[in-house]
Amino acid sequence: MPPSTREKTRTKRDEYYRDRRRRKVCTFCADKTVMIDYKEVNRLRRYLSERAKIEPRRKTGTCANHQRQLAVALKRARIVALLPYAPQHVRP
Fold this sequence. Notes:
mainly alpha
């Protein structure tokens, strides 16, 4: 028994929306942050990977303007030794 045309369009629509995800919101825009301070180490740590690399925009959801400010703040915090350049070595 062939499926009706209504069922076919419904499955195509479901396949189309299955891969689409909700866009992440910039936390700095939500908090209405004007400048990102390099001394807020706990906040900046969320934007570093476990290998101490700066996370990309697509993963964190920050806007382009705040991502640029975030990169500068992270680099400044590294220079002042508030954040690591490299991950800590774990010995067994």
